[in-house]
Amino acid sequence: MTTSGADATAARILALLTERGETVAAAESLTGGLVAAELTGVPGASASFRGSVTAYATDVKRDVLGVDGTLLAQRGAVDSAVAAQMAAGARTVLGADWGIATTGVAGPGPQDGNPVGTVHVAVAGLNGTGKTAVLRLNGTRAEIRRESVRSVLALLLGELLETARAKDTEQNGGN
């Protein structure tokens, strides 16, 4: 059996987090638990994965994850700022060092004026750091959801590697 890109990324993320003594939590909308499934599919995931909130409904994003209600009313749930607040909310609510989030439109039709395939992923990191990405995906509902999982995990891995590089540079006196 071959390992998919997402499988390998999830394993690498969890190894890095375990090595660093850090944890991650997820907030998922369109992926509906697929990010959590990908992470928990890695043996030993419990050492670093705190849990997830599947915030499919807008009021769950607001009431559980703490996404600003005015933001949701003005922009809808498919928005980079919403994804960023979801990631920060997962981090806070689940007591993790890192939070990740997915929100978007997998289909069958558009949502809040956004076409199918519009996805926002986010990472909320240590000391208030974070990053978001906007995806314009094509394919079936299942393909869009799978690519959203792969993309949020890749975004998190990039941030973990960046913080490791920054820490190495700091410890080695710059340059």
Please tag this protein with its features.
single chain; 175 residues; alpha/beta; Maf protein; 5-stranded mixed β-sheet; 6 helices; 5 strands; 46% helix; globular
How many angstroms separate the termini? 43 Å
For the record, the CATH class is Alpha Beta
Could you tell me the radius of gyration in angstroms?
16 Å
Q: Can you count the beta strands? A: 5
Structure annotation, total helices: 6
Run of helices and strands: HEHEHHHEEEH
Q: What's the pLDDT, averaged over the residues? A: 93
Output the CATH homologous superfamily.
Answer: CinA-like
Q: Helix share of residues?
A: 40-55%
Please summarize the sheet with the most strands. Answer: 5 strands, mixed
Number of domains as seen in the coordinates: 1
What overall geometry do the principal axes of the alpha carbons give? globular
Walkthrough of the structure:
The chain is an alpha/beta fold. It has a single domain, classed as Maf protein, CATH 3.90.950. It is 46% helix and 18% strand. The protein has helices at 5-20, 34-40, 58-63, 69-75, 80-93, 141-171; strands at residues 24-28, 49-54, 98-104, 118-124, 130-136. It has a 5-stranded mixed beta sheet, sandwiched between helices. The longest helix has 31 residues, at 141-171. The chain starts with a helix and ends with a helix. The relative contact order is 0.16. The model has no long low-confidence stretch (mean pLDDT 93).
